[in-house]
Sequence to fold (241 residues):
Amino acid sequence: MIPARNEQDYLPRLLDTVDAALGRYHGGRRQTEVIVADNASTDSTPDIARSRGCRVVEVPERRIATVRNRGAAAACGSLLAFIDADMRIHPETFNAIDRAMTSGKFVAGATGVKMERWSPGIALTYALMVPWVILLRMDTGVVFCSRSDFERIGGYDERRYFGEDVQLLWDLKRVGKERGQRLTRLRPVKALTSLRKWDQHGDWHYFRLIGRLLPIMLSTPSASNDLVQRYWYGDERAPRD
Fold:
């Protein structure tokens, strides 16, 4: 499931990698569906998605958790996988997810990501994240879980304007603990993520951002302010090279 708003520059390259991964999936293409949850795009995003054979779900509300949930609600399968439109996936992604989930050892997981480019600021940001990722086994990239567990926890927390992805894995982790299952990280099939936030705000911007976000993160789940709205819900899209 792909949430998307004004992603005409990024969506085609993601879908190219999705097609490649589906071509190598041992379960076959007919066992999968690609859903694009279009969040009131004003460009050709929904047209591109339809032309590529994706199912398009229109979601007008500007809250990413809601967009993800509406896309998931339209899915027919028993296994859900989420990826952002500005990423690209590894060719063996679906096979790796299938093996992990059929093993019975894991309640959910994520592939993790590789960066499109590196700089001192980006490398230090990444290095600060790694210990928490290893400790909590929570990552980003392609995030996956069973449909039944997703519904059990109520999906993404729609009170949240950001951090809904972390909350989802935290909730799933609790469910898995009851059954002796854990989260997993599929590092051999990391997704490739764009760095458009760094391109827009600078390679060191995270260190300025986190200090302003921490008080919001520690308050109520529905907390937001102008910074949150600009950073996650602004309509700027950095052009890709």
Notes: The radius of gyration is 17 Å.
